[in-house]
Fold this sequence. Notes:
Layout: H1 3-15, E1 18-22, H2 32-43, E2 50-53, H3 58-68, E3 75-78, E4 81-84, H4 86-95, H5 97-102
Parallel strand pairs: 1-2
Antiparallel strand pairs: 1-3, 3-4
Helix pairs in contact: 1-3, 2-4
Amino acid sequence: xxxxxxxxxxxxxxxxxxxxxxxxxxxxxxxxxxxxxxxxxxxxxxxxxxxxxxxxxxxxxxxxxxxxxxxxxxxxxxxxxxxxxxxxxxxxxxxxxxxxxxxx
Length: 104
C-alpha cells in the first residue's frame, strides 16, 4: 500500500475530531454495521462527523484496515485515536464509555 494513502488517512483522523470510515454515507449507510455506528453517534447527538465512504475509494478501503490493523469497517476515530468498529461502539455506548470519550 502506498504511503500517500496512509498519509491521507492520518491527515483525516488527526484533523477532524470524529471520523467514521463506513460503507455508504451517514444519510444512506450501505451495511447494517455502518448503520449501527451512525445510529449510535446520532443517539449521542454527535452532529459533526467526518464520514468517509470506503466504497468510493478502494485504496482507502484497504488502507484503513492496515492503518488501524483492524480488518473490518466501520471504524471510528476520536481525536486521532482508533476506537473500534460497530460491536465495540455498541459496548462502549451501552456502558456510557463512548459518551464520556466524546465529551457529550
